[in-house]
Every structure is written in C-alpha cells, then in structure tokens.
Write a structure and sequence with these properties.
2 copies of one chain form a homodimer.
Chain A (H helix, E strand, L loop, with lengths): L6 H16 L3 H17 L6 H16 L6 H23 L4 H12 L14 H10 L5 E3 L1 H9 L4 E4 L5 H9 L7 E5 L10 H6 L7 E4 L14 H9 L2 E5 H8 L6 E7 L3 H7 L6 E5 L5
Parallel strand pairs in A: 1-7, 2-3, 2-5, 3-4, 5-6
Antiparallel strand pairs in A: 6-7
Helix pairs in contact in A: 1-2, 1-3, 2-3, 4-5, 4-8, 5-8
C-alpha cells in the first residue's frame, strides 16, 4: 500500500507524540519534528507509510538515546491484557462460536496501537468498552472463510503486531494448529510493537515456534527482514497478518494467501479497505485465496 | 502569540485541504504539501501561526494560479448568513439583553472559518445547531465589561474575520456607536476571510467607515498592513478583534485595549486562553483594560 498525502499530518502528529513520550525537553521535540517535516517534504509516496513510521521512530530513538521509548507503555498494556485474560478467555470459551469470538478478541487487541492512537484517544476504559460489545460488532470480511483457510492445512505464519495485543492474540493462537504454526514478532523495539520479550510474557513461546523478523519496521517490510524470517515467510501457505502496519506493508502480496486481521483505525486505511473507521477487518489482500 | 509544535500537523492538514479546494489534480496537492513541509521544517516558532497560514495560502494561490480559491465557499456562507439574518436579528431584538445576544451571535458567526475547520467539520447544519443554543452557552470573559469598554467613548476599530461571519457581525456593529466606529477587512483574498466585497454585501459599508488593511494575512500582522490601516489602528482607543487569526496576531499588544471575540476552535488557542475547545470568548489580551 502506497502512502497517501493524508498521511502527512499524521506523520507530524506521530513524530510529536513519540518525541513527547521519550522526552520532556521541548528542544528535542522541536528537533525531531523539524527533521520529520524535512523528510516528509522529500519522501517517496510509492513507499508504504510504514517506511516513514520506521524513520520517525528511529529518529526518536537516535535523538533521545533511548532504544525502547515505549517500554513503559508496553508493560502497562501487557499487564492490563494479562489481567483481562481470564475474562476474555471465558468469553471465548463460552461463546456460541469460540473460533469466531477468538478472532474478534484478537482484533480488539489491535486497538492497543500507539502508532495510530495517542494515549488521549485510547486507554484502559476504551479497551473495556470494546470487549463488552465485541461479539455484536460488525466485521468486514468473513470469519468462516478465514477458518476454512486455516483448516486447509500447510504452514501458517502469524505476524503479531503490538505488545498487549499479543496476549489477546493468544486466544486465537490457542485455536490454530500449533504444530504447523510459527508466530513472528519484530526484531528490534519500535513504537509499542511486540518483540520476543512480549511473546514470552504472553506464553506464546510455550505454545509454538516464535521467531523474530530482525527488523525495526512497524510492519513487515520484507526487504528489511532477516533470512530466517524470509525462509519461514516463503514456506508459509497461509499468512495471518495482524494490524495496520502489516496491512500497509503486505496488502500488495499477490503470490500467497494473506489474511489481514485488524481494526481500521485511520481514515486512509479505512478508505483503502472500503469500510468505516473503527471497523473490525478479516480480509485477504491482493491475493484472493 | 507564538507558534506551537502542535500547529505542525495542522499546517499540513490546512495545506492539503486548501490544495484540494483549489484543484482536483493530485500532483498539485503533492507539490503544495511537500513545499509546506519544507517551510515548516525551517519555520521561526516565534512567529504567529498566521505567518505560516499566509505562506500556505499564498502558495496555494501561486501554484494554482487562482487568486481567490475560496470564492465559492465565501459566496455560499454569505448567502446562508443572509438567509439566516432575519431570524438571528429577531433573536437579538427579542433577547432579554440584546447587546449580550448580539455579541454571542457575532461569535457564533466565527465558526464559519475554513482555516480552522474543514467542510467535513463544519457545514450549514452545524451553524443552525449553534444558533439554537447560543443564548445558553457559556462564555469565557465578561460581556458586560466589554460593553463598558465600548461605552467609554473614543475611536473603535472592529477587525472583521471571515465572509459569512461578517453578516453576523452586523448584528453587533448595529449596536455599536457608528459615528466613532471603523470596520477593517483583509486587503487581499485569503482563505475565506472577509474582504471589502463581503463588507459591502453585509451592508456594513452603508452603516460606517470600512477600510481594508492591505494585507493577505489571515489575521492582523501589523508589519504587513498598509499605512492607512495603521493610522486608524494607532488612533483607536478600543480594538474589537474577531476570530482566531486576529487573536494569534494581536494577543501580545500591550499598549492598547483589545477585546478578542472568537470561538476557540483549536486546542492550541484553547490552551493559550485557558478554556475548552469550542468555547465562546470575550477577553482582553496582554493589555488589561
């Protein structure tokens, strides 16, 4: 997916949010924001918005000297998700269609996204509200078709997205064929994206193979991933890609069945998907499986 | 008032909105947006946000070759305000305190601002809703103190803000001492700001002296105004400054009584004023009269 001109105000907003998370020095905020504006003035619109996201958050880490600025936010939402886990697991187990419920809860976890949202837009209370209505909300796409793709056999690669969210992913991962499943996380901390540490905390390393992709992109830029990840990706018969960043980077993959599970949190993504903002999505990309 | 880092995402948003109003060519939108990002990367934060607003809208006019891109929007909201005029005039005349009601309606007109708002955020229906509740809404500041300042005597200069809004201004202007009142409009079309043509349409040229300030800034940058305007400004004992742009450019004036009448439409202005977004404001600036 290419970048849109509508992404530009959001790049500036993201840069400022991230700068303020990493530092309370206005001079540092200003330096980061000015450098991102300069980058935006020359950016290649054929690139995915994730490339600019990567540049923004690399710059935040470089200017601040903090290699993991969202560590505290990741811990906070991991803890919140762990606290909620017994409740949401019960919700899934007792649902008329537990697989459908697990997909919905995994997508609800995708709201824990501090690239798309700021802490003004999203907090613990919003997550509680979403869980209360998750089984009734509309979903764009067909969870039954997704389930058929899972049951078709072959290797499955699950691309996790954010910390906190990855604990909700566990609800779905537990219902996937674990012997032919690999879960992948980011290789290097970026925004609040899940890394190996978060997969371990979620208990997913005890369930199936977990690998890291070697990259610090808040999505899956294949050119930026390590060889072992690419080997698994190329061998996968089905890719389950969580979240906006993975959608932005893989929506054009046309030689492989990719199912995107996400909340459409921004107007650009929603327009690309042809759905309203806030909608839960279970859809394939360029490849129609 | 200085520019805030929080203005940067809004500069990009404004540039894109304006580019799309003036043209349906994506290449032109992109060119304008890239050039504004470059300007933002080097802008002097000690300047008022109006300086960047002026740069954005000058660039939109230059790139498009259209000297008045908001002409259709101005006509639409002038016509809407003219249609509403009998109703709002009755509302003022029948109010328990007509002066108070006229101030409130003049401020309500300040919502017709296509710098602060996009046509997604503001339309005819929003204006109707605001009028219905205007007499009950809270106002930050004291309209009675403003009235005392008006009645104190001396020369009054009324700085109009937007087309459409200027027809609501007429309700207040009719209740000001017309023999010692001058109304000023922008010298050159910029966004949907009122020019002499709009003052004439509102019938204000029939009521009192109307001058233009010679400038194309969406506010009052004194260094950018013509000599005749500066003469009237310097001779004024009271300045009534409508709207965010006039607040952004004159809030630091400390040698003259300036009353600011506006809707606080953006978070930066609201924080500067210490009020919630959307609040009606009747306040003095650096000079406490």
């Amino acid at each position: 997916m290419h970048s849109s001109l509508d992404c530009f105000p959001c790049f500036a907003r993201q840069a400022l949010d991230a700068a303020r998370i990493v530092s309370d020095q206005p001079e540092m905020h200003e330096q980061i924001l000015r450098r991102i504006c300069l980058l935006a003035s020359e950016m290649d619109l054929n690139q995915s918005p994730v490339v600019m996201g990567q540049a923004i958050h690399r710059m935040v880490k470089e200017v601040s000297g903090n290699p993991d600025p969202y560590r505290a936010i990741k811990s906070r939402f991991n803890q919140l998700a762990l606290d909620l886990y017994p409740k949401v697991k019960r919700l899934v187990d007792q649902a008329p269609d537990p697989f459908d419920a697990a997909v919905r809860l995994a997508i609800t976890g995708n709201s824990i996204d501090f690239g798309a949202y700021t802490s003004r837009d999203f907090n613990e209370a919003s997550l509680h509200r979403m869980i209360d209505t998750v089984l009734l909300e509309p979903v764009s796409g067909d969870i039954a078709i997704f389930k058929q793709a899972v049951n078709r056999g072959g290797n499955i690669l699950y691309l996790a997205d954010n910390a906190g969210e990855i604990i909700f992913d566990r609800l779905l991962i537990e219902r996937l064929p674990l012997d032919r499943l690999t879960v992948a996380v980011r290789g290097i901390p970026i925004i609040n994206d899940a890394t190996m540490e978060d997969a371990r905390l979620a208990g997913i390393t005890d369930l199936c193979t977990v690998i890291d992709n070697g990259s610090d992109a808040p999505g899956t830029l294949l050119d930026d991933c390590n060889k072992s990840f690419l080997g698994v990706f190329n061998q996968a018969d089905l890719v389950i890609a969580k979240g906006q960043g993975n959608y932005e980077t893989l929506s054009d993959v046309d030689n492989k069945a990719v199912f995107f599970l996400l909340k459409a949190k921004c107007p650009v993504i929603a327009a690309h998907l042809g759905c309203p903002v806030g909608r839960m999505i279970v859809m394939t990309g360029a490849h129609q499986s």
